[in-house]
């Protein structure tokens, strides 16, 4: 409490300028809100309608000065002017995932009911940490968690929570697995002795967030063991079994096996039922990273590809990959809700323990986050408008299209293709013939960059067994086989030109 001497008058209470107050959404500003949002939507509509390529190929060096020139301390004063400026710093050069020749990463075109949800949830601004900041939002999230757990088949004791993405879901899963593995290590000394001996087994094609999580969880630098895969890039169950035995003989403790239902590069689905059997026999936690493959949960034709997932202890799903939801929208599901206690902390100011007895549903008790977006609303409106079958049909379509794309590439003598994906990726590379053959790596790298610079298409790249490959990730039902064929021609042209230029340059100025 400030104290004032008798002579001093207290400062007049500050009043924000009327213009500042007018920017707050409340009863007095609803028309301004409606107008601003409509203007923003109009800009997006204009851009989306006019887009003729997935990107402009702008470089960081070209765009950074435009962004740097903006003086953040000198406001423009109205939304229209700010939107004009936004055209230059963002919209003009944005990457458009709805464009049929965006074929790179696991970022999907989004469905309109989810965008409606996004508009509503940000304006209401519920926070999912506590009931008293969310009310119905908490119940909606819980219904969607139950719905997803039922689709997986996790049983009556399942639970879970929405997260910011697959990386966070995997982190939380491994946190829970670590805590379960440490459950018998009573006291800090026993725990400190056990932690460096913990191991996580995952496929050599698994996602890097497993490694990151292990680091964040204070595990040893060699805690994650990459288990070899078969010819279709699925983890070898016999190798998992052998590794568990080897670890035990070496005095190590396997705290989790991570099966991947849809590897990022190959779209391969590990043999989940076999992994579940091995984990059950060995008493090891099974986490299934279905960040990519979760779309199969609603597939009218391919749900069986996830058979065995129902036996997992925890599952990651990314609705923002194969449920056509805007970023971010993900969840972690667990078979036994009691394990979520490892993420619980009772804070007097927020979620005191007595609220559990009062049966007040505070989702923060299950989450790594405190303040948390109501992302669940997007999925809720999507299901209420479209229903699960329609979503699954969209995913089925891209999986079918990827199979066609694989066929196209595998029949094209200009390219070499890796395993046929169970989901929607195609990993391939341009293969120069004759003396240019050893330029394959450089030619593919060059082609990817040249393509991105042209903006005509965006494809991804990765390394397979030490060699550079290109990757299509299909998530857009609007992409046709003709689009794929067109992009292959562009790649072949860029790569072929590179090989030609390099080989003729070497002929005219021989090295040495
Ligand atoms: C298999 C898999 N797991 C986890 C992740 C991480 O998900 P997020 O990017 O939502 O953190 C990805 C991302 O591509 C993924 O492919």
UniProtKB/TrEMBL annotation:
The keyword Membrane is annotated on this UniProt entry: no
Superkingdom of origin organism: Bacteria
InterPro entries the record matches: Aromatic_deC, PyrdxlP-dep_de-COase, PyrdxlP-dep_Trfase, PyrdxlP-dep_Trfase_major, PyrdxlP-dep_Trfase_small
Gene3D superfamilies: Aspartate Aminotransferase, domain 1, Type I PLP-dependent aspartate aminotransferase-like (Major domain)
GO molecular function, one term: transaminase activity
Cofactor list: pyridoxal 5'-phosphate
Pfam families the UniProt entry points to: Pyridoxal_deC (PF00282)
Keyword field: Aminotransferase, Decarboxylase, Lyase, Pyridoxal phosphate, Transferase
Family indicated by similarity: Belongs to the group II decarboxylase family.
Protein name (database record): Aspartate aminotransferase family protein
Organism: Micromonospora parastrephiae
């Amino acid at each position: 409490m400030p104290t004032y001497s008798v002579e001093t008058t207290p400062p007049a209470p500050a009043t924000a300028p009327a213009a500042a107050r007018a920017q707050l959404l409340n009863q007095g500003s609803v028309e301004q809100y409606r107008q601003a949002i409509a203007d923003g939507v109009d800009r997006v509509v204009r851009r989306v309608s006019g887009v003729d390529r997935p990107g402009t190929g702008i470089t960081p060096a070209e765009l950074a000065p435009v962004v740097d020139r903006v003086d953040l301390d000198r406001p423009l004063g109205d939304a229209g002017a700010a939107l004009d400026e936004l055209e230059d710093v963002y919209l003009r050069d944005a990457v458009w995932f709805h464009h049929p020749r965006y074929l790179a990463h696991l970022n999907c075109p989004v469905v309109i009911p989810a965008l409606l949800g996004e508009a509503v949830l940000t304006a209401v601004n519920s926070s999912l940490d506590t009931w008293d900041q969310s009310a119905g939002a908490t119940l909606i999230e819980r219904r969607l968690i139950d719905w997803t757990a039922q689709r997986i088949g996790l049983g009556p004791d399942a639970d879970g929570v929405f997260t910011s993405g697959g990386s966070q879901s995997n982190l939380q899963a491994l946190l829970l697995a670590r805590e379960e593995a440490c459950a018998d290590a009573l006291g800090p000394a026993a725990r400190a002795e056990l932690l460096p001996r913990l191991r996580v087994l995952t496929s050599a094609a698994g996602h890097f967030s497993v490694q990151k999580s292990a680091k964040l969880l204070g595990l040893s630098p060699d805690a994650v063991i990459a288990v070899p895969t078969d010819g279709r890039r699925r983890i070898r169950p016999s190798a998992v079994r052998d590794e568990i035995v080897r670890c035990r003989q070496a005095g190590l403790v396997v705290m989790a096996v991570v099966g991947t239902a849809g590897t990022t590069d190959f779209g391969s689905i590990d043999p989940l039922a076999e992994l579940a059997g091995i984990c059950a026999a060995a008493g090891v936690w099974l986490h299934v990273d279905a960040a990519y493959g979760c779309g199969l949960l609603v597939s009218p034709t391919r749900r069986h590809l996830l058979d065995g997932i129902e036996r997992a202890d925890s599952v990651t799903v990314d609705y923002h990959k194969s449920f056509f939801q805007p970023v971010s929208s993900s969840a972690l599901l667990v078979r036994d809700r009691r394990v979520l206690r490892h993420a619980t902390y009772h804070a007097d100011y927020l979620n005191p323990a007595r609220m559990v007895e009062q049966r007040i549903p505070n989702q923060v008790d299950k989450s790594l986050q405190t303040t948390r977006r109501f992302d669940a609303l997007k999925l809720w409106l999507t299901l209420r408008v479209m229903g699960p079958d329609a979503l699954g049909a969209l995913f089925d379509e891209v999986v079918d299209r990827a199979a066609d794309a694989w066929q196209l590439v595998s029949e094209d003598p200009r390219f070499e293709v890796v395993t046929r994906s169970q989901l929607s990726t195609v990993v391939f590379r341009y293969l120069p013939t004759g003396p240019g053959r050893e330029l394959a790596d450089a030619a593919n790298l060059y082609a990817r960059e040249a393509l991105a610079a042209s903006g005509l298409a965006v494809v991804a790249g990765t390394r397979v067994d030490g060699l550079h490959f290109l990757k299509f990730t299909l998530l857009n039902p609007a992409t046709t086989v003709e689009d794929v064929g067109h992009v292959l021609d562009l790649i072949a042209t860029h790569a072929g030109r590179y090989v030609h230029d390099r080989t003729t340059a070497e002929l005219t100025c021989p090295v040495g």
